[in-house]
Every structure is written in structure tokens, then in C-alpha cells.
Amino acid sequence: MKPAMQWTALVILGLLSAAGARAGEFTLTAAETKRVEARQVVVRANLDSSQRRGTVRAAVRIDAPPEVVFQMMIRCDDALAYVPHLRSCKVRDQARDESWVEVEHEIDFGWYAPTVNWTFRAELTADRRIAFRQVQGDFKANEGAWELVPTPDGATTLLLYQAFIDPPGFVPNWLARSTFRRELPQMLTDLRRRCETEQTIRSANHAPPEK
């Protein structure tokens, strides 16, 4: 789907600067900006010597407005379709005003490792931000935020991710590395595809009748 407005390096960097404080000072380099413009997924990891623990950042352009992306990200049924190895997603509690939600995930790596269980609390700013942190579970640490930055016309979203992750001790190093290098980009690619499909359907449903 062709975006209503082409992204330029100046626009992207300007939007990132505006969101910088809450996005953890995640500013794309010129090379990363070109990759985002070319619809590639950017992943930047700052990990320890074992390459299994540290801070991970990612960025992807989605040709759908923040509302579509936000709703896709907070629905369990959708998460099961694009989050790798996710076998169960349950809402345990949530605020009446929908400002936060507690969600339980079960991640099954098959024979590679035991099942990972974790419950996180997500603070929600509708169509703009999802900040999460583990409140119970197997991770030693798993907290971060998603930022949804719209283009000026609101038709396209720059999705920014930053998290500090320390996986369970029983997860092998090679498997932990794989989640950063392969599965995170795949998850973002699949999320984009679902969001853009949803936007195409919405646009078709609101299109004027043919004469």
C-alpha cells in the first residue's frame, strides 16, 4: 500500500527528536533512516559479552495510522498471530478507563527450552505509547516501551521499540540471541503486514460506491 506522504530523512529525524525523551533517546542514523524508508526493519542491540542480556531497540514504518497499530498491539487474539512462539495470551486485570492492563503470556520454544511464563503491566496512552514491565514471571528483567509516531497527515506510523531484556537462565544463549536477530524483525514484519491489511479493509469499507 502506497503511503499518502513519502517519508523523508528530515521528517523521520524530526519526529524522532520530538519523541526522543520518552523513546529513550533512540535516534536513527542516516543509514538506518534510509533502511526505514525502504521498509526494512531496523534492530540495534547493545548486549553483554554472552549476547543474551541488554538493551534492544527497533524501528519499522507501517503504512497504517497509529489507531490501527495500537489496537492491533493490545489485542490478545492478534498477538497470537504475530508474536513468535506465543501460545497463550490472557488479560488478567485492567483499568476501567483503559489506562493500563495486566497480561499473561506463555511462550513455548518447543524442545529447545522449558515454557516461559511472564505477566506484564502495560501503561497505555491510546494510539501513542505502550510502556511495559514484568510484574511476575520467568524473565530476570523485561521492561521497555513502544512509541507510535505518526506522519503529519496521520496516515503512516513510525513504530519505535526499546527494551531491557534479561531472559530466564534456562534459555540457551543461542536461543536468546535468535530472538534479537531473527524473531524480533520477523515479529515486526508480521505485525506490519497485519496492520496494513486491516487498514486496507477499513479503507475499502469506507470507500465511496463506484458510479
What is the CATH topology assignment?
Answer: Alpha-D-Glucose-1,6-Bisphosphate, Chain A, domain 4
Structural class: alpha+beta
Strand % is 25-35%
Would you list the SSEs in sequence order as H and E? HHEEHHEEEEEEH
Helix share of residues? 25-40%
Query: What's the CATH architecture name?
Result: 2-Layer Sandwich
**CATH homologous superfamily heading:** START domain
Number of domains: 1
Instruction: Supply the CATH class.
Output: Alpha Beta
| Total beta strand runs | 8
How many angstroms separate the termini? 23 Å
Count of runs of 4 or more consecutive helical residues: 5
Strand order within the widest sheet?
A: 1-2-8-7-6-5-4-3
Characterize the overall form.
globular
Residue-averaged pLDDT: 87
Radius of gyration: 17 Å
The largest sheet, given as strand count, sense and whether it forms a barrel, is: 8 strands, antiparallel
| Low confidence ranges | 1-23
Give an account of the 3D structure:
The protein has 211 residues and is an alpha+beta fold. The chain has a single domain (9-203), classed as START domain (Alpha-D-Glucose-1,6-Bisphosphate, Chain A, domain 4, 2-Layer Sandwich), CATH 3.30.530.20. It has 5 helices and 8 strands, in the order H-H-E-E-H-H-E-E-E-E-E-E-H. It has helices at 9-19, 30-37, 66-74, 76-82, 173-205; strands at residues 42-47, 54-62, 86-94, 100-107, 116-125, 129-137, 141-150, 157-166. An 8-stranded antiparallel sheet has the order 1-2-8-7-6-5-4-3. Helix 3 (66-74) crosses helix 5. The radius of gyration is 17 Å and the shape is globular.
